[in-house]
Amino acid sequence: MKFDTLIIGGGLAGLVCGIALAKKGQRCVIVSSGQSALHFSSGSFDLLNTLPDGSQVSCPDRAWSALAAQAPTHPYVKLGKETFVRLASQVQPFLQKSGVLVQGSGLCNQYRITPMGTLKSTWLTLDDFPVCRMPDRLPWKKVAIFNMAGFLDFYTQFIVDEFRKIGTESSVHLFHFAGLECLRKNPSEMRSTNIARMFEKKENLEKLVLTIRQESGDAEVVLLPAIVGLVAKDGLEMLRCQVEKPLYLLPTLPPSVPGIRTQQILRKCFQDAGGVYMLGDTVKGVEKEGNRIARVYSCNHGDIPFVASNVVLATGSYFSQGLIATPDRVYEPVADLDVVYETGRDCWYDLNLFARQHYQDFGVKTDAGFRGIYQGNVLENLYVAGALLEGFNPIREGSGAGVSILSALYVAEQILSEKL
Ligand SMILES: Cc1cc2nc3c(=O)[nH]c(=O)nc-3n(C[C@H](O)[C@H](O)[C@H](O)COP(=O)(O)OP(=O)(O)OC[C@H]3O[C@@H](n4cnc5c(N)ncnc54)[C@H](O)[C@@H]3O)c2cc1C
Questions:
Q1: Is there an atom of ligand 1 within 6 Å of 75 CB?
Q2: Whose CA is nearest to atom 35 of ligand 1?
Q3: Which of these three, 250, 278, 296, is where a domain ends?
Q4: Domain-ending residue, one of 250, 271, 302
Q5: Which pick of 40, 181, 225, 257 has the fewest CB atoms within 10 Å?
Q6: 163 and 276, same domain (yes or no)
Q7: Span between the terminal Cα atoms of the chain, in Å
Q8: 249 strand-pairing partners
């Protein structure tokens, strides 16, 4: 099987890279074991919320020099300030053209509402969710929060308490649906995705519209857990049209309905551009010839290799098994690339769960062009993008989606520039 580019991993990084390449006419395949971190996404894309020393960031471009001083191998530092700013400015239009509508633009952070009702800095947010400019104020004085009776992944009382602290009063309205009684018998089935499937049916949405219209009273805005819009956004759009008040979703505990829809939209965009997406296949190894990847082998294709001019490794971090940690080492399982980590497991983590967890900084070593390194030698046609990169701490910094998207766009640019 011959392709211009083989991308290993179909999460945010793999899909963004694949779309950028396929739209420029590359014959591209994505091989992906399973679902990605997008299925657990908050619905917001972080670029840089905090510097490694803990200082808050409101405009990531202005924080670039401080980041370069504190984290010299950070993916944004490898890009250089000019490229970082240029690529970050392209992301909102890129997502929009792919069918993912987000709020926020340029390089300034805004605030999103967390599942616990607190406000948290972020960069771009799906337009399903509300955002605000101030860290300690919502744009409304009175809100109506609707929730499905028995849905345990959305804590209305925490949200009410947090909103009250910042001057917003809430009324809470529980609604029942006969169609969900079968889910209610087993609390583990009462998950956002199962509920959202029920709201794919127009008649159920119509009932919800009636309930909201009858009960929302003088609230300025209606808030619902993210249990609508799994396959398409039509359901949310219909609610928004018919409720006659501004209506937004609030994030639930995982799984994330808007995150799953985002994954599906990006996958469709890649396929519409001519890309081949092979879900449920795992790349088990590569064959190298000199400093190049010559052949790639997957579980489903046995001894029939993938052959491609370039290979992009976008297999994610520990969560997706792009990195594996054993008691004494951290390794990259597909190409055995060099990984930067500390020897001595004691310094990998902090017993204080909320402190910086050092293992999150570990990752695959690359050169300045994001090419992978094997036993000290740069592999000329193997690029690395996304969560498995070295030098950044997505949780501490709030930089996860930004690193995945920007590194993917940059790798696509590198590959396309080779062709010229
Ligand atoms: C649970 C969770 C929630 C997060 N939420 C947010 C958020 O709300 N906002 C934010 O900014 N950041 C968030 N992040 C950070 C996140 O890492 C990035 O936002 C981003 O989605 C990661 O994308 P990725 O493509 O690099 O990796 P992943 O999404 O992990 O995708 C890697 C893909 O590679 C596949 N794969 C792995 N090994 C192989 C193999 N050998 N062969 C074939 N396929 C393989 C996996 O199945 C997976 O599909 C979250 C991270 C996690 C773990």
A1: no
A2: 9
A3: 250
A4: 250
A5: 181
A6: no
A7: 24
A8: 224
Q: Which residues of 369-380 are buried (b: 16+ CB within 10 A; e: fewer)?
A: ebbbbbeeeebe
Which two tokens mark 262?
């985002």
Burial degree of 20 (CB within 10 A; 0-12, 13-18, 19+): buried
Q: Give the per-residue pLDDT at 355.
A: 86
Q: Which of 166, 170, 167, 169 is nearest to 136 (CA)?
A: 166
> Would residue 118 count as lying in a domain?
no
Ligand 1 in contact with 49 (CB < 6 A)?
no
Task: Please give the pLDDT value at position 383.
Answer: 98
411 forms beta bridges with none
CA atoms within 13 A on the CB side of 313: 33
Q: Give yes or no for a contact between 45 and 60, defined as CB atoms under 8 angstroms apart.
A: no
Domain coverage including residue 83? 2-100+260-419
> What is the torsion angle, in degrees rounded to the nearest 10, for the CA atoms of residue 67, residue 13, residue 124 and residue 190?
-120
CB 309 within 8 A of CB 26: no
In the predicted model, residues of the chain with pLDDT beneath 50 are none
> pTM of the predicted model, to two decimals?
0.96
Q: Left, alpha or beta for 275 (phi > 0: left; psi -120 to 50: alpha)?
A: beta
Structural domain includes residue 113:
no
DSSP sequence for 91-147: HHHHHHHHT--EE--TT--EEEE-TTS-EEEESEEETTS-EES-TT--S-SEEEEEE
Tell me the per-residue pLDDT of 88-144, one tens digit each, with 9 for 90 and over.
999 999 999 999 999 987 789 999 999 999 999 999 999 999 999 999 999 999 999
pLDDT the model gives residue 112: 97
- With the most atoms of ligand 1 within 8 angstroms of its CB, the residue from 6, 15, 30, 33 to mutate is 33
| CATH number of the domain residue 156 falls in | 3.40.50
Q: Find out whether the beta carbon of 109 lies less than 6 Å from any atom of ligand 1.
A: no
Nearest C-alpha neighbor of 42 from the set 260, 239, 310: 260
Residue whose Cα lies nearest atom 26 of ligand 1: it is 386
Q: How many domains does the chain contain in total?
A: 2
Q: Closest Cα partner for 38 from 364, 316, 408?
A: 316
Residue 84 has a pLDDT of 98
Of 142, 67, 166, the closest CA to residue 403 belongs to 67
